[in-house]
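Supplementary material to the annual report.
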Amino acid sequence: MIPAKFDYVRADSVDQAIQLLQQSDGEGKIMAGGHSLLPLMKFRVTEPGKIIDISRIAELKGVRIEGNRIIVGALTTHHELATHPIAQELVPVLADAASQIGDIQIRNRGTIGGNIAHGDPVADLPAPALALEAELQIQGDEGQEVMSVDGFILGPLITLLPENSVVTSVSFKIPPSHTKSTYLKFFHHASGYPVVGVAVVAGVDKKGFIDFVRVGITGVGEVSYRASSVEKQLLGQRPTETTIQSAAELAIEDGEMGSDLFASAEYRANICKVYTARALKTVLL
Amino acid sequence: MGIQDVSVGVIVNGKERCAEVEPRTLLVHYLRDGLGLKGTHIGCDTSQCGACTVMLDEAAVKSCTMLAVQADGTEITTVEGLGTIKNLHPIQQGFWEEHGLQCGYCTPGVMVAMVALLKENPNPTDEEIRIGLEGVICRCTGYQFIVNAVKHAAKLMAEQNIEIEEVLS
Amino acid sequence: MVKHVGARLKRKEDPKLLTGNGNFADDIQLPGLLHAAILRSPHAHALIRKINIEKALQAPGVVAIYTGKDLEGKIGRIPSSWLVPDANLKEAPQYPLAIDRARYVGDGIALVIAEGRYAVRDVLDLIEVEYETLPVAVNQKEAMAEHAPLVHDDIENNIALHWKAGEVDDADIDGAEVVVRASFNVQRVAPSAMETRAAIGQYNPGSGELTLWCTSQNPHIHRMVLSEVLNISESKLQIIVPDMGGGFGGKIGVYPDEALIGYAARDLGRPVKWVEERNEHFSASNHGRDEIIDVELAGKSDGTLTAIRVRNTANLGAYLSTMGPGVATIDFGLMITGAYAIPKASCETFGVYTNTTPTDAYRGAGKPESTYQIERAIDLFAKKIGMDPIEIRRKNFAKKEDFPYTNAQGLVYDSGDYEKPLNKALEMIDYKKLREEQANQRKKGKLIGIGISTYVELCGFGPSAVAGAIGFQGGVWENSTVRVHPSGKVNVYTGTSPHGQGHDTTFSQVVADKLGIPMEDIDFVFNDTKAISMGWGTYGSRSVAVGGGAVSMAADRIVDKAKKIAAHELEVSVDEIDFSNGVFQVKGAPSKRRTFKEIAKSANMAWNLPADMEPSLEKQAFFDPSNFVYPFGTHIVIVEVDKDTGEIEIKRYIAVDDVGRVINPLTAEGQVHGGIAQGVGQALWEGIVYNDAGQLLSGSFMDYAMPKARFFPRIETAFTETLSPVNPLGAKGIGETGTTASIPAVMNAVIDALEPYGVKDIEMPLTPEKVWRAIQNGEGN
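Predicted assembly:
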């Protein structure tokens, strides 16, 4: 499979990338690792006239801490994220989810910015991103803006990303230190994508009541979501088999189940609940 | 619409290579058709099978899901850069001894991916190897002898390292 | 000298493959090489109203564009090579490109030739085709119904063939104490060799010779068929199969594409290369299986089986493939009794045209399907009468003393001792303890299942007279020439066509033992119709049994002649010569000797040969076996099912196979592992899916789930050796046993795990959702 012809230009800065986007009359597409875009181009599902390569822009690299957030440069690869000491220590659920994306070859090229900007409904990262209240730093022709990951993806490959703009970094809120977390994934046998992926960050106060809980769910439908109903139900409860089980029943309340060749909406609803319960138990019991 | 060729400079298996290519040239085609390195294969086109795996700056990547121009300035190792028939790399020796290949089509990519695995984890368990193989598909072997082959290679590499250490001390 | 046969030797063919020095089809470069691409129908069934190539002809680099109409009368039809007799077979014409009507998604519409791999791909987008879509027939049972859309207008009810073998009366079934009735769908799968198909054609206008490098499991069949299709003498058509990345049946077929590339190379006078893309492969390369099997198994309440009646409704796709018609008939229908002495059997097969990719042989071809239905049905029977699945099998096995054993359909099983691998397998797992463990786990709510399959397989087809009688348009003998050079080094030529099996090594082991020379002194030549006089290729696990037989015979003839030369030189009679370890020696006189190397020189120099002896040391043998071979064995699988999600984990897999003489345990185990992976794949993950409009929904590895390493435990293998009497090596086939055995073993294990829910059957592949639903709908839920 071979992509249609396109022009190629390498941007040295974010400003230049935006300028090039502006000049391209809608023909331009940003490429970082290329692992979301290039497969579509090879199928000729998309035929951009110009590829603007941002992969060498130094300002888009690196992982750092700023206040109670971890800032991950858009060009950070999944493998870098999965193995980064800061990520592993402070947001292990993110490192964990990153380590389960695709395979090592893909993790070596795919970037967090590309992954999220692309809006793939079956990506892994939205789950921990939602659980960690992630925000996107976006630079566009009208300056910088910050967008919450929650609500950013509208549908398959459709996002709120404004025209002529670039995701420069993604930030994640560091959860309280007494919390634990996990990312539990049901693999699609062929693609390796999550049929359901559940990220849970939760903790119990000194009296034994749940005082922090975040649940992000991906893969089951066209849009990843935060399972607020589950969180609400659990907050202030003692973590027991029963409380977790009944809360997990609400895992499908805040999202829509999709249906495809591999699994129906009914089945997805089932595994969504089962995996949510298991992830919660791993963390809380 | 005049599309400009782009220049690609890479070091492949230790040799500097420079070329002007169409921007859309996939890395795998540049290696195969441009440089004549036929050991890297295409098996699926959709980055599932890993037959096209090469090492790019020490990391395994799928060369069918990369533009040649994206590799500009990097160092690449293909199967041809692992070892020669007279002087096999431990991974090649392991695949030979343990019958880790049948048709041999996926093998170059699998071996390169496993060299990368062994770099990060020099003594992997069966389970770790099987998970490490997630980015490749082999239709012939049922994977068991590939697992054996990787373990064999790990052992050879450990022995070689000991020898090197002995020489150095 | 250590015997080579039976030794665990690493392969001779590996060093080149390990170092990137293999030579696969796409690796071939020729001066002036053009690239080809084929525009394929996006519709399952449509009239081709108009093809506009104006714009495409303006594209940069374009050299030629051919449509079906352009080629009418210039290339012949692509024929099927298995014209099953007494089946009212109706072969619809298949042209290299569709002329006025496309009949499946992937049907060839236009051939484009251009300068360069990228340029030719761009041209495809510029061809405008006006289609008028037609109603489609996708499922075979629906396609047979009254008023179903016709794939070929003159073929009534889309029935391509209707075949019967054996007689079972209603009374045999209805009058029996116990009857099990079941319907099994052995779903459509894609063989999915990791190398897709490819062809490169080069024509020499001076000599009129056409060379075609292509992916083929049987180059001589390709030559035979394509010489007719392209109207060129076999003596001027050379088929070369370079290194090939797997076949599994998918590269048996002679496809339109190879003919097109040969034609274009000749027409344009320049070499042309075509390499299939993977998504193209999913629609344009033959699929396997797709058979709906209705079975009635009758017997007594003590477990004695008395009759089996089977109907197979097979989806043959839009055209008859090279071997397609034989799969659900001969291959399947004569083996329906499996390893059991069931006195009465009958099979009725309908082969049906549909608007789908043609189906052909796929690893096992008919035998996995026949094994699946009997091994599933016998489990259902055992369940019904409350008997252990092991006991019912033992009770009905064809007995050791009855071999050669004639089954109810008239096939004569060459040799067998079915208890042997069964006992060995039971020993390996400690069956009794395992059942106890299963019961304990069940009490804890865990679903453990134990599945068994005691299979017998038919392979190594022969003799040729039988092949002729069953309508196969070819012989099934094999040929080998051993050529000893003056130095004593040897070339061996044979007509089997290895592409991963390791013939180079196993056959060299045979020759090394015969001639008493080192393996390194032997080089095999395969896969070139100009070098090898004739042969029938590699499929149906025939290579060692039949090809190995020819190799063995030719080597024996070399020894016979060499002995005569040695006797002549040593001035004794031939009877006085002993030959061992490469040395000819006068009995009782160790100093009077000649080495193989010395005789090689004598024979080739011909300075001093016995009177009337022709010079040189070269012998050819043609081996036509007296019967098929029937490998058998026992596979046992232990699974755990997650009752909340339906996910299946294989905990253990035990395979004990009896394939007669094992030439090389290492490569034999490799074959077993690979075969099992493909069978497990069929049971658990793989499946080609069409929607009602005939659109292919599983058209890439993103949707079509190939077996992955992480889903397998370590497979435990063992062999028992019951030699075959029908070939010189005593060997049976091994390529397909793993696939044949594993599909029902896995299914039986999962059904066993779900026993608490009363689940009797689930359709393959066993996706978690299907398993979960079976549990949801099961007893107690």
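DSSP finds 21 helices and 28 strands in chain C.
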